[in-house]
Amino acid sequence: MLKAYKFRIYPTKLQKTHMEKVLDLCRWIYNQTLAYRKEAWEKEGRSVSKFETHNLLPKWKQDKPELKMVYAQTLQNVQERVDLAFKSFFRRVKAGEKPGYPRFRGKGWYDSFTYPQPQKGGRVVNGKLRLPLIGDIKIKLHRPIEGRIKRLTVCRTTIGKWFACFSVELEDNPKPPWKDGSLVGIDVGLESFATLSNGEKIANPRFFRDEEKELAKAQRRLSKAPKGTPERKKALKVVQIVHERIANKRYEFAHQISSQLVKKHGLIAFEDLNIKGMTHNHNLAKSIHDVAWNMLVTLTSYKAASAGSMVVLVDPRNTSKMCSRCGILVEKSLSDRVHKCSQCGLEMDRDWNAAINILRLGLQSVGIQSVEARPLKGTGAVTNTICTIYRNRRIKNVSCCTTHNNFCNRRRSVFRHNSQGPESKIRVRRN
Ligand SMILES: [Zn+2]
Asked: pTM for this structure?
Protein backbone atom coordinates (compact mmCIF):
# COMPACT_ATOMS: atom_id res chain seq x y z
CA MET A 1 0.00 0.00 0.00
CA LEU A 2 1.26 3.44 -0.83
CA LYS A 3 0.80 6.28 1.57
CA ALA A 4 1.76 9.93 1.32
CA TYR A 5 3.17 12.23 3.98
CA LYS A 6 3.17 15.95 3.43
CA PHE A 7 5.32 18.31 5.48
CA ARG A 8 5.73 22.05 5.29
CA ILE A 9 9.28 23.16 4.59
CA TYR A 10 10.84 26.55 5.24
CA PRO A 11 13.64 27.29 2.76
CA THR A 12 15.91 30.29 3.22
CA LYS A 13 15.75 33.09 0.69
CA LEU A 14 18.74 31.67 -1.16
CA GLN A 15 17.29 28.17 -1.21
CA LYS A 16 13.97 29.53 -2.40
CA THR A 17 15.66 31.25 -5.33
CA HIS A 18 17.47 28.04 -6.18
CA MET A 19 14.26 26.01 -6.02
CA GLU A 20 12.37 28.52 -8.15
CA LYS A 21 15.16 28.22 -10.69
CA VAL A 22 14.91 24.42 -10.58
CA LEU A 23 11.17 24.63 -11.26
CA ASP A 24 11.78 26.90 -14.21
CA LEU A 25 14.45 24.61 -15.65
CA CYS A 26 12.19 21.60 -15.19
CA ARG A 27 9.52 23.49 -17.05
CA TRP A 28 11.99 24.14 -19.85
CA ILE A 29 12.84 20.43 -20.05
CA TYR A 30 9.15 19.57 -20.01
CA ASN A 31 8.36 21.85 -22.93
CA GLN A 32 11.49 20.81 -24.82
CA THR A 33 10.65 17.10 -24.45
CA LEU A 34 7.07 17.70 -25.43
CA ALA A 35 8.16 19.63 -28.54
CA TYR A 36 10.60 16.86 -29.52
CA ARG A 37 7.95 14.15 -29.23
CA LYS A 38 5.38 16.26 -31.03
CA GLU A 39 7.73 16.94 -33.91
CA ALA A 40 8.75 13.28 -34.24
CA TRP A 41 5.10 12.37 -34.44
CA GLU A 42 4.05 15.10 -36.86
CA LYS A 43 7.03 14.88 -39.21
CA GLU A 44 7.94 11.21 -39.08
CA GLY A 45 4.81 9.61 -37.65
CA ARG A 46 7.02 8.07 -35.00
CA SER A 47 6.24 7.74 -31.32
CA VAL A 48 9.16 8.37 -28.99
CA SER A 49 9.95 6.35 -25.87
CA LYS A 50 10.96 7.96 -22.63
CA PHE A 51 14.40 6.32 -22.88
CA GLU A 52 15.04 8.04 -26.17
CA THR A 53 14.27 11.37 -24.53
CA HIS A 54 16.58 10.50 -21.60
CA ASN A 55 19.41 10.19 -24.12
CA LEU A 56 18.86 13.77 -25.23
CA LEU A 57 19.67 15.15 -21.80
CA PRO A 58 23.50 15.22 -22.06
CA LYS A 59 23.28 17.23 -25.29
CA TRP A 60 20.81 19.68 -23.77
CA LYS A 61 23.03 20.07 -20.74
CA GLN A 62 25.91 21.06 -23.00
CA ASP A 63 23.79 23.67 -24.74
CA LYS A 64 22.29 24.98 -21.52
CA PRO A 65 24.86 24.62 -18.72
CA GLU A 66 22.54 25.93 -15.99
CA LEU A 67 20.68 22.60 -16.21
CA LYS A 68 23.49 21.34 -13.97
CA MET A 69 21.71 23.16 -11.14
CA VAL A 70 19.09 20.41 -11.25
CA TYR A 71 19.64 16.93 -9.87
CA ALA A 72 20.01 14.46 -12.78
CA GLN A 73 17.25 12.08 -11.71
CA THR A 74 14.89 15.00 -11.26
CA LEU A 75 15.36 15.89 -14.93
CA GLN A 76 14.63 12.33 -15.98
CA ASN A 77 11.51 12.43 -13.87
CA VAL A 78 10.30 15.48 -15.80
CA GLN A 79 10.54 13.45 -19.00
CA GLU A 80 8.67 10.64 -17.31
CA ARG A 81 5.88 13.09 -16.61
CA VAL A 82 5.72 13.95 -20.31
CA ASP A 83 5.60 10.24 -21.02
CA LEU A 84 2.69 9.81 -18.61
CA ALA A 85 0.87 12.75 -20.17
CA PHE A 86 1.16 11.06 -23.58
CA LYS A 87 0.11 7.70 -22.22
CA SER A 88 -3.06 9.08 -20.69
CA PHE A 89 -3.69 11.06 -23.89
CA PHE A 90 -3.60 7.84 -25.92
CA ARG A 91 -5.71 6.08 -23.35
CA ARG A 92 -8.37 8.78 -23.69
CA VAL A 93 -8.24 8.58 -27.48
CA LYS A 94 -8.68 4.83 -27.30
CA ALA A 95 -11.57 5.12 -24.87
CA GLY A 96 -13.25 7.61 -27.18
CA GLU A 97 -13.17 10.40 -24.59
CA LYS A 98 -12.35 14.00 -25.38
CA PRO A 99 -8.57 13.59 -25.63
CA GLY A 100 -6.90 16.94 -24.84
CA TYR A 101 -3.36 16.95 -26.21
CA PRO A 102 -0.54 17.35 -23.62
CA ARG A 103 0.05 21.05 -23.17
CA PHE A 104 3.09 23.24 -23.00
CA ARG A 105 3.57 24.79 -19.59
CA GLY A 106 3.60 28.55 -19.35
CA LYS A 107 5.54 30.54 -16.76
CA GLY A 108 4.34 29.73 -13.27
CA TRP A 109 2.57 26.58 -14.46
CA TYR A 110 5.09 24.13 -13.21
CA ASP A 111 5.12 23.76 -9.46
CA SER A 112 6.81 20.55 -8.34
CA PHE A 113 9.94 18.50 -8.84
CA THR A 114 10.67 14.95 -7.81
CA TYR A 115 13.51 12.89 -6.40
CA PRO A 116 12.70 9.35 -7.51
CA GLN A 117 15.27 7.67 -5.24
CA PRO A 118 15.34 9.46 -1.92
CA GLN A 119 17.87 6.98 -0.48
CA LYS A 120 20.39 8.70 -2.69
CA GLY A 121 19.06 12.22 -2.85
CA GLY A 122 16.36 13.97 -0.88
CA ARG A 123 16.06 12.60 2.63
CA VAL A 124 15.73 13.75 6.20
CA VAL A 125 19.06 14.12 8.00
CA ASN A 126 19.26 15.42 11.58
CA GLY A 127 15.75 16.79 11.45
CA LYS A 128 16.36 18.70 8.23
CA LEU A 129 15.47 17.92 4.66
CA ARG A 130 18.65 17.36 2.68
CA LEU A 131 18.20 18.07 -1.01
CA PRO A 132 21.18 17.46 -3.28
CA LEU A 133 22.59 20.67 -4.78
CA ILE A 134 20.17 22.78 -2.71
CA GLY A 135 21.20 22.01 0.85
CA ASP A 136 19.56 21.36 4.22
CA ILE A 137 16.10 22.86 4.57
CA LYS A 138 14.12 23.39 7.74
CA ILE A 139 11.21 20.95 7.82
CA LYS A 140 8.29 20.58 10.20
CA LEU A 141 8.02 16.84 10.81
CA HIS A 142 4.69 16.82 12.61
CA ARG A 143 4.50 13.05 12.58
CA PRO A 144 6.96 10.21 12.10
CA ILE A 145 7.31 8.64 8.68
CA GLU A 146 6.50 4.93 8.72
CA GLY A 147 7.44 2.55 5.94
CA ARG A 148 9.91 2.66 3.10
CA ILE A 149 10.23 5.97 1.29
CA LYS A 150 9.75 5.51 -2.45
CA ARG A 151 9.99 9.05 -3.72
CA LEU A 152 10.06 12.65 -2.65
CA THR A 153 8.29 15.49 -4.40
CA VAL A 154 8.92 19.09 -3.49
CA CYS A 155 6.05 21.38 -4.39
CA ARG A 156 5.13 25.03 -4.24
CA THR A 157 1.60 26.26 -3.73
CA THR A 158 0.14 29.20 -5.64
CA ILE A 159 0.84 31.57 -2.78
CA GLY A 160 4.44 30.43 -2.43
CA LYS A 161 4.40 27.96 0.46
CA TRP A 162 6.70 24.98 0.02
CA PHE A 163 5.98 21.36 0.92
CA ALA A 164 7.82 18.07 0.89
CA CYS A 165 5.66 15.06 -0.04
CA PHE A 166 7.02 11.64 0.72
CA SER A 167 5.46 8.69 -1.01
CA VAL A 168 5.88 5.70 1.28
CA GLU A 169 5.34 1.99 0.77
CA LEU A 170 3.73 0.19 3.69
CA GLU A 171 3.51 -3.52 4.21
CA ASP A 172 0.05 -4.68 3.27
CA ASN A 173 -1.87 -5.37 6.42
CA PRO A 174 -4.50 -8.03 5.94
CA LYS A 175 -7.77 -6.32 5.19
CA PRO A 176 -10.20 -6.59 8.08
CA PRO A 177 -13.34 -8.59 7.39
CA TRP A 178 -16.47 -6.71 6.63
CA LYS A 179 -17.61 -5.38 9.97
CA ASP A 180 -20.92 -5.33 11.69
CA GLY A 181 -22.48 -2.01 11.22
CA SER A 182 -25.45 -0.21 9.93
CA LEU A 183 -26.12 0.35 6.26
CA VAL A 184 -26.52 3.87 5.11
CA GLY A 185 -27.38 5.77 1.96
CA ILE A 186 -26.23 9.35 1.61
CA ASP A 187 -27.74 12.13 -0.42
CA VAL A 188 -25.64 15.20 -0.92
CA GLY A 189 -27.43 18.47 -1.34
CA LEU A 190 -27.13 22.20 -1.17
CA GLU A 191 -29.41 22.96 1.74
CA SER A 192 -27.63 20.65 4.12
CA PHE A 193 -24.30 19.15 3.18
CA ALA A 194 -25.61 15.59 3.33
CA THR A 195 -28.67 13.66 4.43
CA LEU A 196 -28.42 10.09 5.66
CA SER A 197 -31.01 7.40 5.07
CA ASN A 198 -31.58 7.20 8.84
CA GLY A 199 -32.79 10.77 8.77
CA GLU A 200 -29.63 12.32 10.17
CA LYS A 201 -28.42 15.49 8.54
CA ILE A 202 -24.92 16.85 8.24
CA ALA A 203 -25.15 20.62 8.17
CA ASN A 204 -23.10 22.78 5.89
CA PRO A 205 -20.09 24.08 7.76
CA ARG A 206 -20.12 27.78 8.48
CA PHE A 207 -16.97 28.43 6.53
CA PHE A 208 -18.75 27.62 3.26
CA ARG A 209 -20.77 30.78 3.54
CA ASP A 210 -18.11 32.95 5.12
CA GLU A 211 -15.39 32.06 2.66
CA GLU A 212 -17.72 32.35 -0.28
CA LYS A 213 -18.35 35.97 0.69
CA GLU A 214 -14.63 36.58 1.14
CA LEU A 215 -13.88 35.08 -2.22
CA ALA A 216 -16.53 37.12 -4.00
CA LYS A 217 -15.15 40.27 -2.40
CA ALA A 218 -11.58 39.45 -3.39
CA GLN A 219 -12.59 38.60 -6.93
CA ARG A 220 -14.52 41.83 -7.29
CA ARG A 221 -11.48 43.77 -6.20
CA LEU A 222 -9.33 41.85 -8.67
CA SER A 223 -11.60 42.51 -11.61
CA LYS A 224 -11.64 46.24 -10.84
CA ALA A 225 -7.85 46.59 -10.65
CA PRO A 226 -6.33 47.71 -13.97
CA LYS A 227 -4.15 45.16 -15.70
CA GLY A 228 -0.40 45.29 -15.16
CA THR A 229 -0.55 47.39 -11.99
CA PRO A 230 0.83 46.52 -8.54
CA GLU A 231 -2.74 46.68 -7.15
CA ARG A 232 -3.76 43.90 -9.48
CA LYS A 233 -0.85 41.76 -8.38
CA LYS A 234 -1.83 42.32 -4.78
CA ALA A 235 -5.49 41.60 -5.45
CA LEU A 236 -4.57 38.38 -7.25
CA LYS A 237 -2.53 37.27 -4.26
CA VAL A 238 -5.53 37.80 -1.98
CA VAL A 239 -7.74 35.69 -4.26
CA GLN A 240 -5.14 32.93 -4.23
CA ILE A 241 -4.84 33.04 -0.46
CA VAL A 242 -8.61 32.70 -0.03
CA HIS A 243 -8.71 29.82 -2.51
CA GLU A 244 -5.99 28.00 -0.65
CA ARG A 245 -7.67 28.56 2.70
CA ILE A 246 -10.95 27.20 1.36
CA ALA A 247 -9.15 24.15 0.01
CA ASN A 248 -7.51 23.47 3.38
CA LYS A 249 -10.70 23.85 5.39
CA ARG A 250 -12.66 21.74 2.94
CA TYR A 251 -10.08 19.00 3.10
CA GLU A 252 -10.19 18.93 6.88
CA PHE A 253 -13.98 18.90 6.89
CA ALA A 254 -14.15 15.98 4.43
CA HIS A 255 -11.60 14.11 6.54
CA GLN A 256 -13.67 14.45 9.69
CA ILE A 257 -16.96 13.44 8.10
CA SER A 258 -15.48 10.48 6.23
CA SER A 259 -13.83 9.16 9.40
CA GLN A 260 -17.13 9.30 11.26
CA LEU A 261 -18.93 7.53 8.42
CA VAL A 262 -16.60 4.56 8.12
CA LYS A 263 -16.46 4.23 11.89
CA LYS A 264 -20.22 3.93 12.20
CA HIS A 265 -21.37 2.21 9.04
CA GLY A 266 -20.66 -1.10 7.36
CA LEU A 267 -22.01 -0.15 3.98
CA ILE A 268 -22.15 3.38 2.66
CA ALA A 269 -23.97 4.16 -0.58
CA PHE A 270 -23.35 7.43 -2.41
CA GLU A 271 -24.60 8.80 -5.65
CA ASP A 272 -22.03 8.48 -8.39
CA LEU A 273 -21.27 12.15 -8.79
CA ASN A 274 -19.48 11.57 -12.08
CA ILE A 275 -22.68 10.35 -13.63
CA LYS A 276 -24.51 13.28 -12.12
CA GLY A 277 -22.35 15.46 -14.34
CA MET A 278 -20.63 17.85 -12.01
CA THR A 279 -19.07 20.13 -14.52
CA HIS A 280 -17.26 23.35 -13.94
CA ASN A 281 -19.73 25.64 -12.31
CA HIS A 282 -19.83 29.40 -12.32
CA ASN A 283 -21.98 29.58 -9.26
CA LEU A 284 -19.50 30.09 -6.43
CA ALA A 285 -21.45 28.38 -3.68
CA LYS A 286 -22.18 25.41 -5.89
CA SER A 287 -18.60 24.91 -6.98
CA ILE A 288 -17.31 24.99 -3.40
CA HIS A 289 -19.87 22.32 -2.52
CA ASP A 290 -19.17 20.16 -5.54
CA VAL A 291 -15.52 19.81 -4.73
CA ALA A 292 -16.29 19.04 -1.09
CA TRP A 293 -18.72 16.27 -2.06
CA ASN A 294 -16.26 14.70 -4.42
CA MET A 295 -13.62 14.83 -1.75
CA LEU A 296 -15.95 13.22 0.77
CA VAL A 297 -16.65 10.30 -1.56
CA THR A 298 -12.98 9.81 -2.39
CA LEU A 299 -11.80 9.95 1.21
CA THR A 300 -14.59 7.70 2.46
CA SER A 301 -13.82 5.12 -0.22
CA TYR A 302 -10.18 4.93 0.65
CA LYS A 303 -10.73 4.84 4.40
CA ALA A 304 -13.45 2.20 4.08
CA ALA A 305 -10.99 -0.38 2.79
CA SER A 306 -8.92 -0.43 5.96
CA ALA A 307 -11.88 0.10 8.31
CA GLY A 308 -13.74 -2.99 7.14
CA SER A 309 -16.65 -1.17 5.61
CA MET A 310 -17.48 -0.66 1.99
CA VAL A 311 -18.62 2.09 -0.30
CA VAL A 312 -20.88 1.66 -3.29
CA LEU A 313 -21.69 4.28 -5.86
CA VAL A 314 -25.10 4.25 -7.46
CA ASP A 315 -26.63 5.85 -10.50
CA PRO A 316 -28.30 9.04 -9.23
CA ARG A 317 -31.05 9.12 -11.84
CA ASN A 318 -34.49 9.59 -10.28
CA THR A 319 -33.27 9.11 -6.74
CA SER A 320 -34.88 12.37 -5.67
CA LYS A 321 -38.08 11.86 -7.68
CA MET A 322 -38.84 8.28 -6.77
CA CYS A 323 -41.08 7.58 -3.81
CA SER A 324 -39.13 5.43 -1.39
CA ARG A 325 -42.27 3.66 -0.25
CA CYS A 326 -44.17 2.80 -3.43
CA GLY A 327 -41.68 3.54 -6.18
CA ILE A 328 -43.65 5.90 -8.38
CA LEU A 329 -41.96 9.01 -9.72
CA VAL A 330 -43.07 12.26 -8.17
CA GLU A 331 -42.04 15.30 -10.19
CA LYS A 332 -40.64 18.11 -8.11
CA SER A 333 -38.74 21.30 -8.65
CA LEU A 334 -35.55 22.21 -6.78
CA SER A 335 -37.50 24.40 -4.38
CA ASP A 336 -39.86 21.61 -3.25
CA ARG A 337 -38.32 20.54 0.02
CA VAL A 338 -40.91 17.90 0.88
CA HIS A 339 -41.63 14.67 -0.92
CA LYS A 340 -45.40 14.15 -1.14
CA CYS A 341 -46.59 10.97 -2.79
CA SER A 342 -50.07 11.06 -4.30
CA GLN A 343 -50.23 7.28 -4.56
CA CYS A 344 -49.26 6.06 -1.10
CA GLY A 345 -49.47 9.30 0.80
CA LEU A 346 -45.86 9.26 2.03
CA GLU A 347 -44.77 12.67 3.16
CA MET A 348 -41.19 13.23 4.21
CA ASP A 349 -38.12 15.38 3.73
CA ARG A 350 -37.05 15.35 0.12
CA ASP A 351 -33.39 14.57 0.77
CA TRP A 352 -34.20 11.86 3.28
CA ASN A 353 -36.41 10.18 0.68
CA ALA A 354 -33.54 10.36 -1.81
CA ALA A 355 -31.07 8.92 0.70
CA ILE A 356 -33.32 5.90 1.24
CA ASN A 357 -33.50 5.36 -2.51
CA ILE A 358 -29.73 5.57 -2.72
CA LEU A 359 -29.36 2.98 0.01
CA ARG A 360 -31.72 0.64 -1.79
CA LEU A 361 -29.83 1.00 -5.06
CA GLY A 362 -26.57 0.46 -3.24
CA LEU A 363 -27.79 -2.83 -1.80
CA GLN A 364 -29.03 -3.94 -5.18
CA SER A 365 -25.65 -3.26 -6.69
CA VAL A 366 -23.95 -5.63 -4.25
CA GLY A 367 -26.14 -8.48 -5.33
CA ILE A 368 -29.63 -8.01 -3.99
CA GLN A 369 -31.85 -7.59 -6.98
CA SER A 370 -35.29 -7.65 -5.49
CA VAL A 371 -35.34 -5.22 -2.65
CA GLU A 372 -38.64 -3.47 -2.97
CA ALA A 373 -39.42 -0.18 -1.49
CA ARG A 374 -41.74 -1.13 1.31
CA PRO A 375 -43.81 0.90 3.72
CA LEU A 376 -41.30 2.99 5.51
CA LYS A 377 -42.11 4.67 8.74
CA GLY A 378 -38.91 6.05 10.08
CA THR A 379 -35.63 4.26 9.83
CA GLY A 380 -36.34 1.02 11.58
CA ALA A 381 -38.69 0.01 8.85
CA VAL A 382 -36.15 0.66 6.14
CA THR A 383 -33.46 -1.47 7.60
CA ASN A 384 -35.90 -4.15 8.65
CA THR A 385 -37.11 -4.57 5.13
CA ILE A 386 -33.59 -5.02 3.97
CA CYS A 387 -32.73 -7.39 6.76
CA THR A 388 -35.66 -9.63 5.91
CA ILE A 389 -34.27 -10.08 2.49
CA TYR A 390 -30.77 -10.63 3.71
CA ARG A 391 -31.86 -13.20 6.25
CA ASN A 392 -30.20 -16.53 5.74
CA ARG A 393 -29.54 -15.72 2.18
CA ARG A 394 -26.46 -17.08 0.55
CA ILE A 395 -24.93 -14.55 -1.74
CA LYS A 396 -22.72 -15.85 -4.46
CA ASN A 397 -20.13 -13.76 -6.15
CA VAL A 398 -20.81 -10.42 -4.65
CA SER A 399 -19.31 -7.93 -7.01
CA CYS A 400 -20.14 -4.67 -8.76
CA CYS A 401 -18.59 -2.72 -5.98
CA THR A 402 -17.21 0.04 -8.12
CA THR A 403 -14.93 1.63 -5.61
CA HIS A 404 -12.81 -1.18 -4.32
CA ASN A 405 -12.86 -4.83 -4.99
CA ASN A 406 -12.00 -6.31 -1.66
CA PHE A 407 -15.60 -7.11 -0.93
CA CYS A 408 -15.78 -9.12 -4.11
CA ASN A 409 -13.56 -11.76 -2.55
CA ARG A 410 -16.01 -12.30 0.22
CA ARG A 411 -18.21 -14.72 -1.62
CA ARG A 412 -20.62 -17.10 -0.06
CA SER A 413 -21.11 -15.09 3.07
CA VAL A 414 -24.15 -15.63 5.13
CA PHE A 415 -25.99 -12.49 5.95
CA ARG A 416 -28.02 -12.69 9.07
CA HIS A 417 -30.57 -10.59 10.67
CA ASN A 418 -29.14 -9.35 13.87
CA SER A 419 -31.18 -6.79 15.66
CA GLN A 420 -34.31 -4.80 15.16
CA GLY A 421 -33.38 -1.39 16.48
CA PRO A 422 -33.54 1.66 14.33
CA GLU A 423 -29.97 0.95 13.31
CA SER A 424 -30.48 -2.69 12.49
CA LYS A 425 -27.24 -4.48 12.04
CA ILE A 426 -26.31 -7.17 9.67
CA ARG A 427 -23.79 -9.71 10.71
CA VAL A 428 -21.61 -11.34 8.15
CA ARG A 429 -20.40 -14.82 8.87
CA ARG A 430 -17.79 -16.19 6.61
CA ASN A 431 -17.72 -19.88 5.76
ZN1 LIG B 1 -45.46 6.60 -2.75
From this structure: 0.69
